[in-house]
């Protein structure tokens, strides 16, 4: 998973990672990348062997990830990777839509430096190039960087932290549906329109563009999950 922009919640400052922090980072990556499939069950000993560490930090990491909505810790039965449900995506996208739209409004209102606008546009160009090569993984990585950087540029740490709480769950679903969704050309057009509105200082327009962009993403995601049965695992 690309880790640009939004804060890495598994580490604090520049201190060396504890075993628990390391377990959180490794286990989260395995869940988000779907190396541990939605609905699968795993004993602590199994996960500890996968991560190359003792069971204690793995148990502590699982509890942390349970609080983030990625797993379910079941006493004496191990860890269950939570399925991706349409109802969950409905709730999460509803929250993210409003918060990210607010971020877009704030960014447009305060304005960006030329180099910041150029950075956002570089991600859009990378997305366009990736789509031209039918490289969905590269497109997703550039899209991820674009949205994370936009949130960061809003300059609201609390908003950034709240968005980060839900981002992993959305990213997991996006990776799962990456190759069965239509090519996201409309998404790239939305990105361009959004950056143009930000560059022109049109805060309300930026907010509405981003809101409609996220609403469309939500509808696509929920339809894919329901149609392909990811909610049944």
UniProtKB/TrEMBL annotation:
<feature type="region of interest" description="Disordered">
    <location>
        <begin position="1"/>
        <end position="20"/>
    </location>
</feature>
<dbReference type="InterPro" id="IPR011711">
    <property type="entry name" value="GntR_C"/>
</dbReference>
<keyword id="KW-0238">DNA-binding</keyword>
<dbReference type="InterPro" id="IPR000524">
    <property type="entry name" value="Tscrpt_reg_HTH_GntR"/>
</dbReference>
<feature type="domain" description="HTH gntR-type">
    <location>
        <begin position="17"/>
        <end position="84"/>
    </location>
</feature>
<dbReference type="Pfam" id="PF00392">
    <property type="entry name" value="GntR"/>
</dbReference>
<feature type="compositionally biased region" description="Basic and acidic residues">
    <location>
        <begin position="1"/>
        <end position="12"/>
    </location>
</feature>
<dbReference type="Pfam" id="PF07729">
    <property type="entry name" value="FCD"/>
</dbReference>
<dbReference type="InterPro" id="IPR036388">
    <property type="entry name" value="WH-like_DNA-bd_sf"/>
</dbReference>
<dbReference type="GO" id="GO:0003677">
    <property type="term" value="F:DNA binding"/>
</dbReference>
<keyword id="KW-0804">Transcription</keyword>
<protein>
    <submittedName>
        <fullName>GntR family transcriptional regulator</fullName>
    </submittedName>
</protein>
<dbReference type="GO" id="GO:0003700">
    <property type="term" value="F:DNA-binding transcription factor activity"/>
</dbReference>
<dbReference type="InterPro" id="IPR008920">
    <property type="entry name" value="TF_FadR/GntR_C"/>
</dbReference>
<keyword id="KW-0805">Transcription regulation</keyword>
<dbReference type="InterPro" id="IPR036390">
    <property type="entry name" value="WH_DNA-bd_sf"/>
</dbReference>
